[in-house]
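User: Just a sanity check before I run the rest of the batch. Below are the structure tokens for the first item. I only need the designed sequence back.
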């Protein structure tokens, strides 16, 4: 029976596929940590109150990168180079989702519109991250090797999503509503396309590592295309709605430390 749980269990059980999975995840999280740290450093004076939350967001992402690397180390594995076609974070930046790295590498303060754009982009990508980690938490929260990591990262991603909702609603009340909705829609439609392409690339690499048959690979590819078709038709709308989150001030305190992995 082919299911999300059985598929990930197969990836988890094989050293080479697990190494690729953790390497991709660690790279993306570390990149997100850098981006948030730079945004926090460049926040405009009128929004300096946001800087600690953006810093916390970046610290969480850095922590997640360290956790994935620690999971590799626990199994005596080293990270592998991330194939460019599987680099979700960099592909997002290349397609205009997230603030341009050239801007983040400079010293010019960001504008309020830049911060609104950053939050709208984050609201879309954190929706994906929250859903993916919830799926892993549902199936692997009690796993002896990855259970603690999955639960911690999942909770953090839920906090990040709540923070994006709360701050975007604040900016909407301040008169940025149209810009927010336009950016959310553009970002969501771009993200679902990139997610499809990255998913196909990752599954192709996993298939080679795990020796999947052509038939099995074709079934998985068909499932990825079917998900994209649903998201393109209607599913993207879940990424653009805004509502007051149950978790208020979700990033209002310091980041929680990463667990130790013996």
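Assistant: Here's the designed sequence for the first item:
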């Amino acid at each position: 029976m082919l299911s999300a749980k059985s598929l990930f269990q197969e990836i988890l059980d094989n050293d080479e596929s697990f190494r690729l999975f953790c390497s991709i995840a660690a790279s993306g999280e570390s990149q997100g940590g850098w981006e948030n740290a730079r945004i926090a450093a460049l926040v405009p004076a009128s929004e300096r109150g946001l800087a600690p939350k953006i810093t916390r967001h970046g610290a969480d992402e850095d922590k997640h990168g360290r956790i994935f690397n620690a999971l590799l180390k626990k199994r005596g594995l080293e990270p592998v180079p991330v194939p460019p076609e599987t680099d979700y974070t960099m592909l997002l930046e290349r397609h205009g989702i997230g603030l341009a790295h050239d801007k983040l590498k400079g010293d010019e303060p960001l504008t309020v519109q830049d911060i609104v754009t950053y939050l709208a982009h984050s609201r879309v990508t954190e929706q994906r991250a929250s859903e993916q980690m919830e799926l892993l938490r549902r199936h692997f929260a009690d796993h002896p090797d990855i259970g603690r990591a999955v639960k911690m990262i999942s909770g953090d991603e839920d906090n990040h999503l709540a923070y994006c909702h709360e701050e975007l609603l604040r900016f909407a009340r301040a008169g940025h509503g149209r810009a927010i909705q336009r950016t959310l829609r553009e970002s969501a439609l771009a993200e679902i396309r990139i997610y499809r392409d990255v998913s196909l690339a990752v599954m192709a690499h996993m298939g080679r590592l795990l020796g999947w048959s052509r038939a099995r690979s074709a079934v998985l590819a068909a499932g990825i295309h079917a998900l994209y078709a649903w998201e393109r038709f209607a599913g993207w709308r879940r990424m653009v709605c805004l509502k007051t989150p149950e978790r208020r001030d979700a990033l209002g305190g310091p980041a929680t430390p990463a667990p130790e992995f013996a």
